[in-house]
Task: structure prediction
Amino acid sequence: MNGPVLSDGIFFCDRSLAMVRDTQTSLYIAMVRGTRTSLFAMARVSRTILSLYLRMPQRRFILIIGFIVCFLGSCGIAKAQYGVDSLELLQWKEMAAFYRNLEIKNLPEEQLREQQYQHLKTFLTAYPANNSGAFFIDWSKSITALQADTLSRLVAPAVRNKYSEMLSFTKQRLQLTENGQPFPKLVLRDSSGKEADIASLKGKIVLLDVWSSWCGPCRREIPELKKLYQKYKDSGFVVIGISLDDNKNKWVQAMQHDGQTWPAYCELKPWRDNTMYKRFKITAIPDNFLIGRDGKLYAQQVAMHNLENKIRRLL
Result:
């Protein structure tokens, strides 16, 4: 996944949970807002901590305070590494929840595109200086290149300059692989040196699965993908594995271990020298492209739990 990986911490699942969360929220406010608001927030923190102390054994109280301190420490690390403050962490979580909900809804691509675009437009208009804005645009692979450019212009200049490479990559990828447009020319080479042109598969439903032997999340998706392949291959569903490995032995061993029976291709080059990075701007895996029978890109970065529904729409 792109962007900073931010942790909520671990908390006890009892009545104290809501109070701990209330303490965190108050500390957020104290850290990022003005003096007067901070005083009120710190007063709430003091009351909550006193209440926790009176309601539970001392050992548990010390543990919970320790968790809160560790949590604030992670916020400080995020601020130092990514320029993301505590309020932005909350906004990050809210946006992540929005994307998860969109996945659960499993909308047709046109509706998915419009909802992503409108939600991001509203968010970036309200919070142009949010450091996470560039990441949110990068997550939205259903939007068009023109929409991505429009959203990028809503980002504050300082943030846009800071993440200029990411925004440029997103725009370049969408210009090349925009949903609803013909998939670009792509010739792949297998382990024996044999070449295959993706255009020759027109009339089939094609999933280009971009993975690597060293990518744990990629390989955890393989069992489910194998089930879908067996279920729909007689209906014209084709899987093409594209590995970003640079070690042939590890690549081949991983395919054999996972039982991948579909055609597999690999350039055996370092990531930054690979076509999938240089041309298609793939900066994180697992990734994929789902191409319809007409040769047009139907969807990309499809979550495995949504893949079957999208395949059915293309049958």
